[in-house]
Argininosuccinate synthase (Vibrio marisflavi CECT 7928), 1612 residues
Amino acid sequence: MTKQQINKVVVAYSGGLDTSVIIPWLKENYHCEVIAFVADVGQGAEELNGIEEKAIASGATECYVVDLKEQMVEEYIYPTLKTGACYEGKYLLGTSMARPIIAKAQVEVARNVGADALCHGCTGKGNDQVRFEGAFAALAPELMVIAPWREWDLVSREECLDYLAERNIPCTASLTKIYSRDANAWHISTEGGVLEDTWNAPNEDCWEWTVDPEQAPNEAEFVTVKVQQGEIVEVDGEAMTPYNTLVYLNEKGAKHGVGRIDIVENRLVGIKSRGCYETPGGTIMMEALRAVEQLVLDKSSFEFREELAVKASHLVYDGRWFTPLCKSVLAASEELAKDVNGEVVIKLYKGHATVTQKRSDNSLYSEEFATFGEDEVYDQSHAGGFIRLYSLASRIRALNEKK
Amino acid sequence: MTKQQINKVVVAYSGGLDTSVIIPWLKENYHCEVIAFVADVGQGAEELNGIEEKAIASGATECYVVDLKEQMVEEYIYPTLKTGACYEGKYLLGTSMARPIIAKAQVEVARNVGADALCHGCTGKGNDQVRFEGAFAALAPELMVIAPWREWDLVSREECLDYLAERNIPCTASLTKIYSRDANAWHISTEGGVLEDTWNAPNEDCWEWTVDPEQAPNEAEFVTVKVQQGEIVEVDGEAMTPYNTLVYLNEKGAKHGVGRIDIVENRLVGIKSRGCYETPGGTIMMEALRAVEQLVLDKSSFEFREELAVKASHLVYDGRWFTPLCKSVLAASEELAKDVNGEVVIKLYKGHATVTQKRSDNSLYSEEFATFGEDEVYDQSHAGGFIRLYSLASRIRALNEKK
Amino acid sequence: MTKQQINKVVVAYSGGLDTSVIIPWLKENYHCEVIAFVADVGQGAEELNGIEEKAIASGATECYVVDLKEQMVEEYIYPTLKTGACYEGKYLLGTSMARPIIAKAQVEVARNVGADALCHGCTGKGNDQVRFEGAFAALAPELMVIAPWREWDLVSREECLDYLAERNIPCTASLTKIYSRDANAWHISTEGGVLEDTWNAPNEDCWEWTVDPEQAPNEAEFVTVKVQQGEIVEVDGEAMTPYNTLVYLNEKGAKHGVGRIDIVENRLVGIKSRGCYETPGGTIMMEALRAVEQLVLDKSSFEFREELAVKASHLVYDGRWFTPLCKSVLAASEELAKDVNGEVVIKLYKGHATVTQKRSDNSLYSEEFATFGEDEVYDQSHAGGFIRLYSLASRIRALNEKK
Amino acid sequence: MTKQQINKVVVAYSGGLDTSVIIPWLKENYHCEVIAFVADVGQGAEELNGIEEKAIASGATECYVVDLKEQMVEEYIYPTLKTGACYEGKYLLGTSMARPIIAKAQVEVARNVGADALCHGCTGKGNDQVRFEGAFAALAPELMVIAPWREWDLVSREECLDYLAERNIPCTASLTKIYSRDANAWHISTEGGVLEDTWNAPNEDCWEWTVDPEQAPNEAEFVTVKVQQGEIVEVDGEAMTPYNTLVYLNEKGAKHGVGRIDIVENRLVGIKSRGCYETPGGTIMMEALRAVEQLVLDKSSFEFREELAVKASHLVYDGRWFTPLCKSVLAASEELAKDVNGEVVIKLYKGHATVTQKRSDNSLYSEEFATFGEDEVYDQSHAGGFIRLYSLASRIRALNEKK
């Protein structure tokens, strides 16, 4: 298919400046009908209110808003959480996990409306273009992909605003925008501005969601969660849906300044970028699940889970969700999560989410075994034989060297 | 060699109750001369003062105190730190790293004094017996190993105290000791007591070194470190030896409640135990090195470093320091650390050690590349081809499925 | 439970000399009833004929022979094969895979007959004791385990024969037995004798099953197999059960000298041993599955499958079948095997099993893409962008170094 | 730098049709001086004879032929061999290992002659373009790279021949060339023709170097090699340089049909290709080194070496030789190779290279330990304790489940 043959495009529309420009630009350059698609992944009312009108005003024929909030937590966040994935040791993958679910829903809309192309508003230096297009390749290889930022000549907000003004398309976007942000139910990311120099500490306005730990309450607060098969099923005694759990924990975490990260990370496209991420509820969830794992996973299972975490962090970050490899890694971690049941108390205090109490019916920990005294299961005399064989190769090697 | 043939034993002596019992017990049961060996790994004056006299009073012929502090940081801690090792995601391996260096120095003393056996005071349910005996097997397979705790019938502090009293050996140890502790320049660990039930939060007396974050200063403090090849060479503008760096950072960290960990971990011997660890300076060092890595390691190098971290954490924890495998893993991480040069500012505040500023001459981060605008090195048009090939297998698979 | 309380033991009985001794020895030393359990894992009629009578003659109250042949191939061999596991690069795990299934069936018999202990005839230096007892621990921790070879004083065949003779228990075992062997439908292993010196080449009598490649037919023979989800479902055009497939391929492979391996391997207990293994059909199956994978697995999936192979080889070898870790690894490889469908022609010739033809509906290979000319899917111009970003970190690093 | 500014290009010249076209094409399209660079990596006299005259005749100003044969074996092949790398389980990386050394020497020539650009003749669908340009990016980011096959319109041999004919440049290349080949001292690869359909078996003319196993001598032949630190230092009693070792073993292997591989592999650029590879001497070297490893590496070192093999196979295949990650992986394997000393006898017979005898002063194998009887080092009673602790987590888990 060629550019000329495109009749209908579904664009992932955010309501922001760039996707507002994309709609008229597509119509002018591809001479096609444009359908706006908005994924509600919990980015909040501020971004969603009136978004359909906005899309239509920009020239879209229709605008589909799809609520993906519960699905995102259940089908994307939990599987990732069970792996323990944390990109480059810090980043809880908030933007990365949202991309495949958005792309998948966008493909579904495209098929429903009979579109022949997909469009996104990601820039040419970022990860998101790879995540969107990687998902498109796996889910809808027959649809063309349009990436305006790699195609057009617009290079500044000013030019974008001019573009809209010339066409009398209303836009409330400001001329200057210090930071580039992405928000969903799981996190807010902030890039740009003062953060571009790694020798600058983040400003207070780099953080949008969480309270500064220094301004957080002086009194600690405690949250209790119940975990089943690696998922939180109850918070503070109340059963909640996955999304509601996240919302509840976000509110608690944000209040106590939990979940701020400032990181320089390797983008998939070969450059590094610096970002501040806020993941208040997610940080609490991560701590809770890891704490139950401490009780139930044996040593080598734990080690494998850690290896899976490294692998999954790259797969998810790199937009490889819809690949056999990712499915294989997730199958492995789902298997390990089967025993991850228990209860955890987390203390929230000035940026900390610290597990203070934990228990599990599947716990391999036993007071009886761990303590000094005699027990049925562990006989200290076993240790001598264990150590001897465990270090036997070392012994033989050392004896060899003495020959 | 048989038990009967042992003439001289070198015992790793701590001055505590159990090693004080071990000395007379060895003499009575092995009819041999006992040499006490004390490793100074920074456990502090309280434990070391008068220790030689104590050893002699307990029946040792001689007592060797060897200062291993600088060597421990330089040859054991830094190599481990460069791997990023953190056992089961939390524990900075304070006891684990100290064991091989102690065992090695003990072997050297044994050879110098012509001993034919080595003895340690580790219990039969712990990791340390494996670490000591693993090192002994690798370094001195010709020497017999005696592990009294797996051999004798004493099962309580009371019995140990009685044992000494019966022999008129002076001992200031108290009848009850709530916690089992291990201290060195890197950390203090605390086990037992209230911690034995994982549903108990740690008491304040579970922490011995660091200030409670809630009691820590309300004012943040900043520390600046300079890193060369993965090691800190300057702190707050002053060049320091590795050990002095650690001491300096310990003081800062402890004051701000940095480095408290409460973990249930898998012991090598197949059971789980729960411990509270305090690693104030080490936590700061870890954060600092990881931050420089964010600047200098490319994506796949970073991923490998994370894999090495998992491997090294188990190797060090499991007492496999003197093995070809450990040497191989350390060789890999040393290679990666060659570029880990830079400067880092760390903010200390109520338990947090947060890197706020970082820079490096080896940084792969560049403001120019990461930002929106044009540059020489990154051409946005490259991304299209990259993505296409990067997701090509997904595309082909999806096309296949449509056939 | 103590030794004295044991009433009934189920022993894994092979009909060989040592398990024949074990029956009376158990009765004399444990004063208990002994039930013989024989697993038919395809070791052949020679070993199984009259085995029940033999067991009774040795003093067993009952003898249960359980046919595990199909189950072994379906539930143990295929899952392992899908991982690609090959221990230390050579050994196809024939003995290792048989142990968990035998142990599991033995536990079931024990529960059915109300036994309170399990007994095996493995020696104290081998892997099999760990595999049996590892399975017992996971499946029946309440049952006592008796390992006579680690307990009694018999140290030679002669003593074993004397033991039986003294008790008038008939035995046809010969005084000398050069090799120690283990046989099942998958393989025959041979240890001992001339093999004990690694500088000796194997004798012709080290091989029991397969024709010497030098004596194999001068004419090659071809076998065609059809693979579905990583399992062979048809051979030479005929649908066959898993076990019958193996039998068929064994016959073909053995005739052509396929599947001989001579290896020094690391036992789990810390020593090395040398063995000759014959796995004629298994070698063909391995080649066939790997060939289909070449067609259907993408690059990073293939790499993960190789990593899983290494992991699984150790897990299976080490007798860790019934662990969460093993289940997790197998879940990952099952997921990857879902696309492993296709057809393969294998050429058998003087020890070689060489795949000469392969095809798959899931193949990611396409003549069109791979060849020189233009195509829709791969545009050569994409490569420039791909390479640029793929090597961007190298470029930036090199530019840095020039500064 | 722009296209227009290029004054002097160094082209990796092979003497074949495409690089013969590249010389005049560069002059016409870049208006620059062209320097031919020929790497002698053992591709043989046929390709090298008269190559300088040919290059000059095609329009090159100068032609540099650089002998890289010893360096290739010593600095590229041995480090790779020590890792055990074998791409996707089969391919011994013959082309992959040659690319970085060629690229590096080409860069050196470019710097010596003051060139401002580098050019290679790799196609836009292959791996070699990535390998060359990956090396260029790491070694000479300041030099421009020209990849004519991604730039020009020529798409067939006929067009290339016409191009030369129009310019009266002599060329002996034939119009049709069935296979695409790459040769060096380590291997010959063959792609194209009948191989493009994976359901075709290779023709006999797919193999160029090795004798068909069916035509190989009916008498086996034996080769003895001595290995030091993972490198062969003596063959059949004679000390030889690395390259001469390879030549000697190539001759032996080729005669006996050793080292033929037929594989469908994943290219780095996202497509699969099918190739036949002949690596006669290399296959023997691989077998020899792996056999010594069987004697000297302990279990977990062996497992890590296998993991390194997987990693290294991808790194080398993907052209990432000059990266910190590759250096790190090689540092790890060099460390493990320190003990890889020994002697090995390899039997060559109709395509097989089978190690029949092996020994090593560093061997951890000991007849005494492995056999049935008593010994000093291994006490069978140790096994009971070992097994108990080794399977303790399984036991505890199982006991839990019974509660």
Summary: The first strand of chain B starts at residue 8 and ends at 12. Chain B touches chain C at residues 298-299, 339, 361-364, 366, 369, 377-379, 381-386, 388-390, 392-397, 399-400, 403 (CB under 8 Å).
